[in-house]
Amino acid sequence: MRSGSxxxxxxxxxxxxxxxxxxxxxxxxxxxxxxxxxRAAWRANYGHFNYNMLLTPKxxxxxxxxxxxxxLQGHNAARNSDRPWRKIEDMLETSLVHMFDRTDPMxxxxxxxxxNSAWKNVSKELKLASKKVEVSPLVKDASSDKGxxxxxxxxxxxIPKSGSTMxxxxxxxxxxxxxxxxxxxxxxSYRYFGKNDRPGLGYFLEQASTRAKTVYVQxxxxxxxxxxxxxxxxxxxIMRDPVEHLISSYxxxxxxxxxxxxxxxxxxxxxxxxxxxxxxxVIERRLECVYYGYTVHKNKTDQLEFRKTWSPTYLYPSDxxxxxxxxDEECTQLGNPLALQKAKHNVxxxxxxxxxxxxxxxxxxxxxxxxxxxxxxxxxxxxxNSEVKxxxxxxxxxxxxxxxxxxxxxxxxxxxxYNHIKQKLFKQYAEIIGKNIN
Length: 438
Known about the structure:
With 438 residues, the protein is mainly alpha-helical.
């Protein structure tokens, strides 16, 4: 009887293994057939094509063997200069990390207490540092009948690969002469903030407004703090031509992955994703190179998993629109027309300035004119330091015109937003030129 039972169990296990193998093989066959059909359709419409294989096995191994580059060299050099409040910035950034590390649900008063404690802990150092300089970030009296004065706080929710390294370098330098703290968020892959972290950050920034003139910088989606009955700070950002942004991001991410994970540590599927040329990604409609229909990850654990595993399976389509649309449900659905309209609305109503990487001279002029408390002298400093860049080790300008056009079509929502931002920026710039002429 035991023998019969054992035979039955073995048969069941074998059947499960065969079923899994058959399903995986069937998926491979169907997927490969789909990719073959896409290649054939592309060839019929645009003619013969060749994939430009930049990340060969030899190149991948070479990138992994390189000394791990400091991707923030430009603004780290500025920050490590003689800033009298560098220690204060470090302490506050650490407090933010501890706050974002919390996963347990917290009540409003608990979140408020965290923000208050973070600033209370640096109160003494802030006062001492302010005595050593003529221009200080210290806010002596920010109370008023109208409530908290949020003009002391600037939020730069920076888009990756859009000039943010250059901007951080400028902010650190200007912060010394104009007297403000620059606080950089250190959760680089955490962009969709959870229910605790949005109001938690809001309380932190409200406390900042009463204690020190502050610029908060982080790769994160727009947050409407008024939904939590909090005051809204001033927002700025810089956008880049969507296709150029995708090209830069595509190879930058692969360089970072290879510097943290060797090809030998990767699965066969991971090596395929990393080595895949951008042209192939577009033509065969891989996940990173499509847009409509994808829903952005909202779970904190999922977002942080990328920097724990460095797996390329966590690479997803462009999420630029969310930096202006925010955390509403429609914003997370790429291609949703409501997300585009909300992003435009926020650009017009809730961002003081949104610059463009392709028009930095105009961007600097508008920033300095609109926000002199944070950007006085920005134009001159930019001209003197325009060579500071966060360069890619891998980049290509050899995309064929059909591939570029296909990407442009898929990113049509981002291009509509880009053109809307350009219209607003040049209108602001024209007002400055008109005043200077008059």
